[in-house]
Specification:
Neuraminidase, Rossmann fold, 6 helices, 472 residues, mainly beta, 41% strand
Length: 472
């Protein structure tokens, strides 16, 4: 399992010990992107201090402060006060002490921080221990509430492990402010190319684009990756045998199994919510329908058949529905099929389906929110000649547009906490060009705070956001 793979990477090297938690009566600022008045929380993270006898550690303290700032800013909820805004605060941090202040923040003039607009303050200290290990202490205060919000200490066997500790702390801080789990303990898979002429391969990275890993290497085109519900496996399509066949990879040992190799299309594979079934697009004599397959029978079986092409299946996380794309009425539109499972939920059948979209010339790649309440999808707007992303309720009502006037935007996928959406866009174009190679972008679920993921690849597309993979 990917959980085991990742844990082994850090096994025995990261010890977390809780220093203090917010008391039950704390009422910090609550960040809610659904609130029309949503704005980013002004946050300061001064350079982390070191012991007076360890001045050679100063550079590391500054680096860790910068990295934590990057993580919080990337989350889309925090506006980090830059170094220019921190000037003049250094002396205050070390000379004014007040025993009535927040525990752990006695040397901070919180009123002065508040005077320059800071609402959330995180301070840290890095200590080199005699055993050659390190202790990283982090504390956060909600200045508006006048209370300590979070405090943790991490024992690191090497400074290489600091990034993992910072991601865990960033997740804890996001949870404290939003009431939702953070995003930094999950992974993203996608199709990418190293150069213009490279074959498309399947890659995996952290949510900020770092930690890039190439998962496939065959000299063939690879497409349409997706995660299993527990994050231990992925599905993808590969032409390595000359036909678009569906494969499954176990991420713990990189073992690969061919799932469907019928002549013709075997693509767009997705797991059911319980991981017992796989649905995918398959073709016979050029007619493309949606098939399913379990892990016992070697044969694929039809799940959806009808007039026109049926593709892009997506099981709802609650197991009640299957969203898909059908061209049965001419142009491709989003549909929702009702599912009926057998007693042990090892088999399923469709009992009926409903068309969800009527506007738009070409709608595709529906993606369920984790609570199964909403669907994101890509739609082609003929008036501007571009794909954009849209959001609607699970019954097709309350349509919202998320992107506009920024290249083609396609293949949405939700973060496991339901707060963000990753997608691909070709909006970054070289000089003189209208469009560039596709890259990965992340935004808040309301379409705000759109930013690119720097993977370092020539192109990156068809992303899928995986489940939480590490516990805190």
């Amino acid at each position: 399992m990917i959980r085991n793979l990742l844990l082994k990477m850090f096994q025995g090297s990261l010890l977390l010990c809780l220093m203090s938690q917010a008391s039950a009566n704390i009422q910090p600022i609550v960040i809610n992107i659904d609130n029309p008045k949503f704005r980013k929380l002004v946050t300061a993270i001064p350079e982390m201090t070191v012991s007076p006898d360890q001045k050679d550690m100063t550079g590391h303290g500054a680096r860790l402060s910068k990295r934590l700032s990057q993580l919080l800013e990337f989350s889309g909820y925090f506006r980090i006060l830059r170094e220019a805004g921190l000037r003049g605060m250094t002396e205050t941090r070390t000379t004014r002490a007040d025993p009535d202040k927040i525990a752990g923040f006695e040397k901070e003039d919180l009123r002065q921080w508040q005077a320059i607009g800071v609402e959330s303050l995180t301070i840290g200290r890095l200590i080199r221990l005699p055993q050659g290990t390190y202790r990283l202490e982090l504390r956060s205060a909600d200045i508006s509430a006048g209370q300590r919000l979070l405090g943790k200490a991490y024992i690191l066997k090497s400074l290489d492990e600091a990034d993992m500790a910072l991601k865990q702390y960033a997740d804890q801080l996001l949870t404290a402010y939003t009431g939702k789990p953070g995003i930094f303990n999950s992974k993203i898979i996608f199709t990418g190319k190293k150069t213009l002429h490279s074959m498309k391969q399947i890659y995996m990275c952290d949510v900020d684009g770092g930690g890039l890993i190439q998962l496939t290497s065959a000299k063939a085109i690879h497409l349409s990756p997706s995660f299993s519900p527990d994050g231990s496996k992925i599905l993808y399509t590969s032409y390595e045998s000359g036909n678009p066949d569906l494969y499954m990879m176990n991420l713990s040992n990189r073992s690969v199994q061919k799932i469907s190799g019928e002549q013709g299309l075997n693509s767009g594979g997705v797991f059911s919510d319980n991981g017992k079934l796989i649905a995918f697009s398959g073709s016979i004599a050029g007619n493309t329908e949606i098939y399913m397959k379990d892990f016992i029978s070697p044969q694929r079986r039809p799940l959806l058949q009808g007039h026109g092409i049926d593709v892009d299946p997506a099981f709802s996380p609650d197991g009640r529905w299957l969203a898909f794309v059908s061209g049965r009425y001419g142009q491709p539109h989003i549909f929702r099929a009702a599912l009926q499972w057998n007693q042990d939920r090892s088999q399923v059948r469709v009992t009926g389906d409903t068309r969800l979209t009527y506007a738009g010339w070409y709608n595709a790649t529906p993606a369920w929110s984790p609570d199964s309440a909403r669907l994101a999808f890509a739609g082609f707007d003929r008036d501007i000649g571009r794909f954009d992303l849209f959001l609607m309720n699970a019954d097709g009502t309350n349509m919202e547009r998320l992107t506009l006037n920024a290249g083609d935007n396609e293949n949405p996928s939700w973060s496991p906490n339901g707060q963000m959406i990753i997608f691909s866009s070709n909006r970054i174009a070289p000089a003189g060009a209208r469009k560039g190679p596709p890259q990965l972008f992340i935004m808040n679920r309301d379409g705000s705070s759109q930013r690119v993921l720097a993977t370092g690849l020539y192109s990156a597309e068809t992303p899928r956001w995986g489940p939480f993979t590490l516990t805190h």
